[in-house]
Write a structure and sequence with these properties.
The complex is a heterodimer of chains A (431) and B (302). With 431 residues, chain A is α/β, with parallel strands linked by helices. Chain A is 35% helix and 23% strand. In chain A, strand 17, helix 15 and strand 18 form a beta-alpha-beta unit. Chain B has 302 residues and is mainly alpha-helical. Classes of the chains: A alpha/beta (431), B mainly alpha (302). At the A-B interface, helix 2, strand 6 and helix 3 of A face helix 7 and helix 8 of B.
Chain lengths: 431, 302
């Protein structure tokens, strides 16, 4: 019983644990400790040994070498009921083939206390508390099998809580839930952890979810503990790239400051390079789709002049497009214009997007005519008169000059792609 | 109290009346015992394997017990006394269960599907061996075994019945004590471990006990099908899946069902008696199908 365990001992300790199954060793020499009251998440790629680690921690898999201690006692030396009163487990999916009601399932959590004659008042109290905590009290007479996945997971959590354990372990229990359900389960877990001081060990392959909620992350790869630390320490681009074997990016969530991981899909989508550089004149968000599409088609890009903080300049930065920037909300100055002119000099053509023109950015159209006079093609988004906020409609006038000199108008991305292809048909270079 | 000689209590003032009462009471006890044993055994197999198809026949346990009993009848196990028949049946049933488990086992814990598949195979082997034994037996032995195989609740000696009663009540009682553990086991072996159950121990114990029940039933009444498969489902549909209620309910329900079927078997074509196994399948099947169609959602959900 809990009283026999050392109250100062850590909730869970692995000491040099090597473990696995008959034919296969999965975990190699794992060392870590979890203090009581911590919220720790085990992360790692599929098949890295996360679930085996949980099974070893609960005594289901016996270590080949090393020791697993739960509250200071070796887990395999615990009697089954003692073990269940210390450790509660929420499985990936609780599967009950028979038609038990929700309250019957939660009551099974009380079988730890083991009385044949059926539950007593204390058991009923505990079950009701667990059901209130997990918000399934309203469902108590419903059949477990007819609940939604989220409700089933909350019931499974209630069952584990009814055991009144001191540490709760979850094996990918949230991964397959919709975002609303997974957030609810996470919120319950945080309450359990903060209010009831129950230690939580969450196995998860969802890095962002783990980083969002856990005090500490343990990154497992090929059965070894690669990194053990705060979310900020573990969520390092280099480390994750190595472990997951793919390109990915870590940013900070603008609201919570939590690290956020995302894959880099664009790299896989891109066509082979075309060896053609286009300079894009855009602004106010008109360039985002243009950048993506042209990159995917295989063009090299440059952009500008854009104002800092403009959403196009953010997009250009994210997509690693060289870009000339001007101070926010200011007219394009000489220095920026000079830089942009040299960029246009290196480009093979200029595309003008659906950007509104005012006195501040009118000079950008000069870039287009400069390219034209150097014999480079210019593609101009049609309807420029509608976006012209300059006095005396200077932009529309400039556009007419460009068109007279041979610039081509486009009115949609599909059309632009077709125009580009017909301008440079033979330049697709296979890598 | 139903029989070819009339319905209701026979006139006990005559000698023939007392004899009829005696016979009918014997059949009644046989039916209750065999039915209870088969149905309880089916309930437990279904819980442990978490599969609605599990029952002593599907797992080959009944086939094995039948082979043992046939051997005992033909070759003679009489030297062991009253326990000879049930003991041989039990021994063979355990052997079959081990064989089924060994065939299904591909390292680790065998899946339910491979268990059932190998059960069906072993069952088929057992029945062909029985057929072989029957075909090589003399005419008397052949007659006895065939009749016994068709299912027959003719009471054996009182001492046989007493021994069987003892075996059945001990096994069924022990399984009843394991009822809370069976409830936990329906969530799967891994969950049972997390719930503080020695899942391996409970599984092995209850498999042995229910094999003992099935073997005793087969040695007493022959191969009577359907009771172990369908009665547990109906009881689960009526009383819910909590094994503290389900185990006794299946025992009583299975017994009552078999007694009723036996009464029908004796009366429908009187004075010719139909094998009771035929009645359980013919009469019980459709009736239970109707019940299950209406109440299946309270029994199993896929």
């Amino acid at each position: 019983m809990p009283g026999l365990t050392d109250s100062l001992a850590p909730a869970l300790v692995f000491r040099g644990v090597t473990a696995g199954y008959k034919a296969r060793t999965v975990l190699h020499d794992i060392d870590f400790g979890i203090a009581e009251g911590e919220f720790v998440s085990i992360i790692g790629p599929n098949g890295s040994g996360k679930s085996t680690m949980l099974k070893t921690a609960t005594g289901l898999v016996r270590p080949l070498k090393g020791r697993v201690e739960v509250f200071g006692r070796e887990v395999s030396s615990l009697r089954p009921r003692e073990r269940a009163s210390l450790i509660g487990v929420v499985p990936q999916k609780l599967d009950s083939p028979m038609a038990f009601t929700v309250s019957e399932i939660v009551m099974i959590g009380r079988s730890v206390r083991g009385r044949w004659g059926g539950p007593d008042a204390g058991d009923h109290d505990s079950v009701e508390r667990a059901m209130i905590y997990t918000n399934v009290l309203d469902l108590k007479d419903r059949l477990f099998n007819q609940l939604s996945a989220g409700e089933q997971q909350r019931t499974a959590l209630a069952m584990a809580l009814a055991q009144e354990p001191r540490i709760i372990m979850l094996d990918e229990s949230i991964a397959h839930l919709d975002i609303n359900h997974s957030q609810e389960v996470l919120r319950i877990l945080m309450n359990i952890n903060r209010e009831e001081k129950i230690t939580v060990l969450l196995v998860s392959h969802d890095l962002n979810l783990a980083a969002q909620i856990a005090d500490r992350l343990m990154l497992i790869d090929h059965g070894r503990l690669v990194k053990n630390g705060s979310p900020g320490e573990v969520m390092q681009e280099e480390l994750l790239r190595r472990v997951y074997g793919c390109d990915l990016r870590v940013r900070r969530d603008p609201y919570s400051g939590n690290p956020l991981v995302s894959g880099v899909l664009d790299a896989a989508l891109r066509r082979p390079p075309l060896q053609k550089r286009l300079h894009i004149i855009s602004g106010g968000g008109s360039g985002i789709e243009l950048f993506r599409r042209l990159l995917i088609e295989g063009f090299d890009l440059s952009a500008g002049v854009l104002n800092r903080l403009d959403s196009d300049s953010e997009a250009a930065r994210a997509l690693d497009i060289p870009c000339v920037l001007e101070q926010p909300f200011s007219a394009v100055g000489d220095e920026a214009l000079l830089q942009a002119e040299s960029m246009v000099g290196e480009a093979d053509g200029v595309v003008v997007g659906l950007v509104p023109f005012g006195p501040g950015n009118l000079v950008n159209l000069e870039l287009a005519s400069q390219a034209q006079s150097a014999g480079k093609p210019v593609w101009l988004a049609s309807g420029i008169a509608l976006r012209d906020y300059t006095p005396e409609k200077a932009a529309a006038g400039k556009a007419r000059q460009l068109i007279d000199a041979g610039a081509v108008e486009w009115s949609g991305l599909q059309e632009l792609m077709a125009l580009l292809k017909s301008a440079w048909p033979q330049h697709r270079v296979q890598r | 109290m139903l029989g070819p000689s009339g319905i209701g209590l026979p006139d006990t003032s005559t000698i023939s009346g007392r004899a009829i009462l005696d016979l009918r009471l014997g059949r009644f006890f046989m039916g209750m015992m065999v039915g209870a044993a088969l149905s309880t055994s089916g309930t437990v197999f279904q819980a442990i394997l978490r599969n609605p198809l599990a029952e002593p026949y599907v797992l080959g346990v009944s086939g094995g017990a039948g082979l043992g009993a046939a051997l005992s009848i033909l070759v003679g196990g009489g030297f062991l006394g009253a326990v000879g028949l049930p003991l041989t049946a039990f021994f063979f049933a355990i052997l079959t269960l081990l064989a089924v488990y060994a065939i299904a086992n591909q390292g680790g814990v065998p899946s339910v599907y491979s268990l059932i598949l190998s059960g069906v195979i072993v069952s088929a082997i057992c029945s062909s061996v029985i057929m072989f034994l029957v075909s090589t037996a003399d005419i008397d032995g052949m007659h006895t075994v065939v009749w016994w195989m068709l299912g027959n609740l003719q009471p054996s000696s009182w001492i046989d019945q007493f021994v069987s009663l003892l075996l059945i009540s001990v096994a069924a009682g022990a399984l009843w004590l394991l009822a809370p553990a069976l409830n936990v086991l329906t969530l799967g072996r891994e969950m049972a471990h997390y719930q503080g159950l020695d899942a391996g121990m409970v599984t092995v114990t209850s498999l042995l006990l229910s094999t003992m029940l099935a073997a005793t039933a087969v040695s007493m009444g022959g191969m009577i099908g359907f009771v172990g498969l369908i009665v547990p489902h109906v009881m689960r549909a009526l009383f819910g899946p909590d094994h503290r209620w389900l185990v006794p309910a299946s025992a009583i329900g299975g017994g009552a069902f078999l007694v009723l079927c036996d009464a029908l078997a004796r009366t429908i074509m009187a004075p010719v008696e139909i094998p009771v196994g035929v009645v359980t399948a013919l009469a019980g099947g459709p009736f239970f199908l109707i019940v299950l169609r209406k109440k299946m959602k309270y029994a199993w959900i896929d």
